[in-house]
Design a protein that fits this description.
Layout lengths: L1 E9 L5 H12 L6 E12 L7 E10 L5 H4 L13 H5 L11 E3 L3 H12 L5 E4 L4 H14 L31 H11 L16 H17 L3 E4 L2 E8 L2 E9 L2 E6 L3 E3 L6 H8 L4 E3 L2 E10 H9 L14 E3 L5 E15 L9 E4 L8 E10 L11 H15 L6 E5 H5 L18 E3 L8 H17 L9 E6 L6 E3 L12 E3 L10 H17 L1 H4 L1
Helix pairs in contact: 4-7, 4-13, 6-13
Length: 532
């Protein structure tokens, strides 16, 4: 008999015996009656820094002699749901006149293709960037030699932008598909703990292999994945998709298809331009700002006290709404991580952040962002947000005429002066930084909002507003600046063309993009008969 028990509080360091004692005490049964248990949720309660607790939910197998637990009505027998793509497919095989096409191999594209492959539809995936092994070499060469491959970088390539941003899996969405995605990640090589941690992450070093393993399964199931192949055009007849045009090595090929999932990511600006002439799109709000770095030990101590030595590096998530009507928030926080060079176009500087699975870097870093809306840039052009991003990326590059990123101590930014030196926090940006006034590469309202927010955040995490905190700019790619409209059937204005994921404006991170990829694939399968 299996039952679920929530809110089990344990010391930071706990053993199997501690867990069984806590479970038996809660259930009021003998420890010997607990046959086995499985942790399905875990979080850290640090409200009392002198007595921090690990709070967990368990599924417990108890002996049949304890059926009275059910009869008394306090607990219900637990019947776990099979959270896998196989369970969603349920043995069904679909048939289509043409093989479906997936554009992009980020989280949305990979999970869409994996789902279609399990239905037996043999999808064809086209990715403009390189496979993850070659992509890692492209990133290394950019970091060491400032040689940018505009088709294979931190934004473009197998696994999408998330591959080089820690593999953070926390999300604000509420969907049954979340557990499906987590189980697939574990199946393909991620650590089991992502299934129960409150803020799960895989780590860039492990995610590389997870992505490769998903690719291998798609191919084993009959799918194809073509790297360095870019979508350059779409052909339709009376609003119905007929073919996609793919470019490779300077040559173009026509692929006949009646179903195509567009999962291009938030930085495919040339593809946005092409699509803007084909389908209905609209500008959408996004955010810009900087990467903020602190000493990780100080962030952990502020949240956990002396117990930080026994706990993983502390994450944080902060937000506020200011009296200037601007919202400021942290995003993609990387405990023990590094600021990375995320440019995808020449002569532009873009930052992002990542951590390895151990999260053992000296600094904590996070995007520190200010929301902008179409009212902040021209509204008569659907791609005005793209040009808005480019403007500040170019300004950041122009400061040193290189891919070195502009950087400034928080204390100096407040005093409106260029830093002459750094203090207790040193920048981790791999190419190197140039000391500069960030007001020269960001809108004034963004800088002033960040300064105001630092005071607010310091009240929430003591020391967050320390003068030695450093800002590295610019962070412009937190989300897509456009939305590719889709109707109630999931189509764009071209029937058979399915906008999907973060680039299309329907997700905001690895988990929500992967979930949208699965849901879009399921929707495609349900529409096959109407497309054939």
């Amino acid at each position: 008999m299996r039952i679920k028990i929530s809110n089990i509080k344990l010391p930071i360091i706990n053993t199997d015996l501690d867990i069984k004692r806590a479970l038996s005490k809660t259930l009021r049964i003998k420890p010997s009656s607990i046959l086995s248990y499985e942790k399905i949720k875990e979080s850290i309660d640090s409200r009392n820094k002198l007595d921090i607790k690990i709070v967990s939910t368990f599924v417990v197998d108890v002996s049949n002699e304890e059926k009275g637990l059910i009869n008394c009505g306090k607990y219900e027998e637990y019947y776990p749901k099979e959270n896998t793509i196989e369970a969603l497919v349920n043995g069904t095989k679909a048939k289509s006149k043409y093989r479906p096409v997936v554009i992009g191999s980020g989280p949305a594209g990979l999970f869409a293709a994996l789902t279609l492959a399990k239905f037996g539809l043999n999808p064809i995936v086209f990715e403009r960037g390189k496979c993850v092994e070659e992509r890692m070499e492209s990133v290394r060469r950019f970091n060491e030699q400032q040689i940018l491959d505009t088709e294979s970088n931190i934004q473009f390539g197998e696994g999408g932008a998330g591959t080089f941003s820690d593999g953070k899996l926390n999300t604000g969405i509420n969907s049954d598909m979340i557990n499906v995605v987590l189980n697939e990640f574990v199946k393909h090589g991620a650590n089991e703990n992502i299934k129960y941690e409150a803020k799960p992450h895989i780590g860039t070093d492990i995610l590389v292999d997870v992505v490769k393993n998903i690719r291998k399964e798609i191919i084993a199931l009959g799918g194809e994945i073509h790297f360095s192949h870019k979508l350059v055009d779409i052909k339709h007849n009376v609003g119905k998709l007929e073919e996609v045009i793919i470019e490779h090595d300077g040559k173009q090929d026509s692929i006949l298809t009646n179903a195509c999932i567009i999962a291009i990511g938030h930085s495919a600006r040339d593809t946005f331009l092409m699509l803007s002439k084909k389908v209905l799109m609209e500008p959408k709000p996004f955010s810009i700002g900087v990467r903020v770095e602190h000493n990780q030990k100080e962030i952990s101590y502020a949240q956990y006290g002396e117990s930080y030595k026994l706990l993983p590096p502390a994450p944080y998530k902060l937000s506020c709404h200011l009296d200037n009507d601007r919202s400021v928030y942290t995003f993609c926080m990387c405990p023990g991580g590094y600021v990375v060079a995320a440019s995808s176009e020449e002569n532009m500087v873009v930052t992002n952040g990542m951590s390895y699975s151990k999260r053992d870097g000296q600094n904590a870093n996070s995007a520190l962002l200010v929301g902008v809306t179409p009212s902040d840039f021209k509204q008569d052009d659907v791609l005005a947000g793209v040009e808005f991003q480019r403007k500040y990326e170019r300004l950041a590059y122009s400061i040193s005429n290189s891919y070195k990123a502009p950087c400034q101590r928080y204390g100096d930014l407040k005093k409106n002066k260029i830093s002459t030196d750094f203090g207790s926090v040193l920048p981790s940006y791999p190419i190197g930084v140039v000391k500069a006034d960030l007001r020269s590469c960001l809108p004034s309202y963004v800088v002033e909002s960040i300064v105001k927010a630092m005071d607010v955040f310091d009240k929430k995490i003591k020391g967050f507003g320390c003068e030695d905190a450093i800002f590295t700019g610019v962070e412009t790619r937190s989300s897509s600046p456009v939305r590719i409209m889709r109707d109630q059937d999931g189509f764009s204005t071209i029937k058979g063309l399915f906008p999907c994921g973060e680039g299309a404006g329907y997700a905001g991170g690895i988990m929500s993009a992967a979930v949208d990829g699965i849901n879009t694939a399921l929707n495609l399968v349900s529409k096959i008969n109407t497309l054939n």
